[in-house]
């Protein structure tokens, strides 16, 4: 049930076409926020983002879909500028978009490494840089996405894990720098979440479940919707005295 916790606020959510980003967008709109749905500049992601924007508007919300290439140095600032032009000054940044891949570390190419770092690490920093003035003016917040892989040290994704560890450190450093301006910076650390990206990597849910469920305290798969409440909380006034923190949403996998 909506309580209007984000009424009057404007959020930019990257990677919002599907998965966690889309679930957060739905939850934010349900709580009264206007949302800019930033998506990868491909036809497939544009179609999904436009469909989500239509869905949110049909339910009475305010939403726009915006293309942006976070791998390009100018991409993050361009997305922020588009969101501001469409919806006004921003109160909330959700840096959710990420590049990934699965490969033994010795087989990762320099180009693959650089792409993951450009989107995940540099992109998160540049988004925070571009939205700084808005957040200071509105006393807003940033919510970054890290990963349980930072804690578990899983193999086959060294480039991705390194980028998510960097985001964890960046979250804390930004919280220190922006705290004097009453801007909060926190992170959400998802566990194994059954999203479209996972389906593309492994179509059979039973295969992943057999590997993941014994590691969790709660014996069911996590869904994108399971994370949305953490984002709403961190974006709301209920978290007004919380910054530099990480919320694990992993079904009780990692407990430290």
Automatic annotation (TrEMBL):
Protein name: SDR family oxidoreductase
Domain Ketoreductase, chain residue ranges per copy: 9-196
CDD domains: SDR_c (cd05233)
Alphabetic keyword roster: Oxidoreductase
Family membership noted in the UniProt record: Belongs to the short-chain dehydrogenases/reductases (SDR) family.
Taxonomic superkingdom: Bacteria
Species annotation: Planosporangium thailandense
Database matches in Pfam families: adh_short_C2 (PF13561)
């Amino acid at each position: 049930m909506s309580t209007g916790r984000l009424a009057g606020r404007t959020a930019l959510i990257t990677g919002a076409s599907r998965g966690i980003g889309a679930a957060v967008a739905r939850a934010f709109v349900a709580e009264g926020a206007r949302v800019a749905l930033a998506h990868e500049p491909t036809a497939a992601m544009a179609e999904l983002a436009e469909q989500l924007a239509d869905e949110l508007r049909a339910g009475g919300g305010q939403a726009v879909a915006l293309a942006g290439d976070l791998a390009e140095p100018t991409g993050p600032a361009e997305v922020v500028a588009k969101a501001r032009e469409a919806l006004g000054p921003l109160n909330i940044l959700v840096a959710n978009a990420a590049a990934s891949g699965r490969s033994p570390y010795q087989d990762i190419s320099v180009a693959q490494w650089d792409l993951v770092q450009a989107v995940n690490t540099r992109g998160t920093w540049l988004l925070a840089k571009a939205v700084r003035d808005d957040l200071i003016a509105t006393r807003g917040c940033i919510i970054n996405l890290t990963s349980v892989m930072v804690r578990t040290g899983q193999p086959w994704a060294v480039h991705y894990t390194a980028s998510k560890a960097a985001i964890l450190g960046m979250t804390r450093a930004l919280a220190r720098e922006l705290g004097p301006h009453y801007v909060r910076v926190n992170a959400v650390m998802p566990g194994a979440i059954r999203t479209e990206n996972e389906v593309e990597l492994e179509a059979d849910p039973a295969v992943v479940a057999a590997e993941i469920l014994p590691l969790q305290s709660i014996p069911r798969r996590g869904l994108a919707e399971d994370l949305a409440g953490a984002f709403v909380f961190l974006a709301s006034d209920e978290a007004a005295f919380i910054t530099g923190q990480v919320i694990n949403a992993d079904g009780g996998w990692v407990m430290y």
